[in-house]
């Protein structure tokens, strides 16, 4: 059997789409942000002095998309931009208190999504899927 015979690409697309939609609904209900915006908040929380450029690189987004997303998160009161003390041309991102609260509210939402994944697959299948997805990610890293 080949990936084409098994319709692997189609199945990956369908699973990713449904997972994304379900996660976005739960995350939006919990904290008023999308999963992509939640990823930005998590990176800002975990990396002191995070910049739009560094976050865009980590998420594989172009800088214009990141600029728009940071603008939306700032408008929502979740992020603030501050000048970098070393390089005045660079803006660092920081969570506001409201951003911290939104990020904290995301834990249960992502927990529910992870529970649905765990319910669908036994532990051996989870390990195999994790390994397979890591290998696929690496195989297409140049894309």
UniProtKB/TrEMBL annotation:
Name of the protein in its database record: MarR family transcriptional regulator
Pfam families cross-referenced by the UniProt entry: MarR_2
GO MF: DNA-binding transcription factor activity
InterPro entries assigned to the protein according to its UniProt record, in alphabetical order: HTH_MarR-typ, MarR/SlyA-like, WH-like_DNA-bd_sf, WH_DNA-bd_sf
GO biological process: response to stress
SUPFAM superfamilies for the chain: Winged helix' DNA-binding domain
Highest taxon listed in the record's lineage: Bacteria
PANTHER family with a match to the protein in the record: HTH-TYPE TRANSCRIPTIONAL REPRESSOR YETL (PTHR33164:SF43), TRANSCRIPTIONAL REGULATOR, MARR FAMILY (PTHR33164)
Domain annotation HTH marR-type: ranges: 5-138
């Amino acid at each position: 059997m080949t990936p084409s015979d098994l319709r692997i690409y189609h199945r990956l697309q369908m699973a990713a789409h449904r997972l994304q939609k379900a996660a976005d609904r739960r995350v939006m209900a919990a904290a008023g942000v999308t999963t992509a915006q939640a990823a930005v908040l998590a990176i800002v929380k975990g990396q002191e002095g995070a910049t739009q450029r560094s976050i865009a690189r980590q998420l594989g987004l172009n800088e214009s998309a990141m600029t728009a997303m940071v603008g939306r998160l700032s408008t929502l009161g979740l992020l603030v931009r501050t000048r970098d003390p070393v390089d005045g041309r660079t803006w660092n991102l920081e969570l506001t208190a409201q951003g911290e609260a939104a990020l904290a509210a995301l834990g249960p939402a992502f927990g529910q999504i992870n529970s649905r994944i765990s319910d669908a697959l036994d532990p051996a299948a989870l390990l195999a899927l994790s390994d397979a997805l890591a290998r696929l990610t690496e195989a297409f890293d140049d894309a």
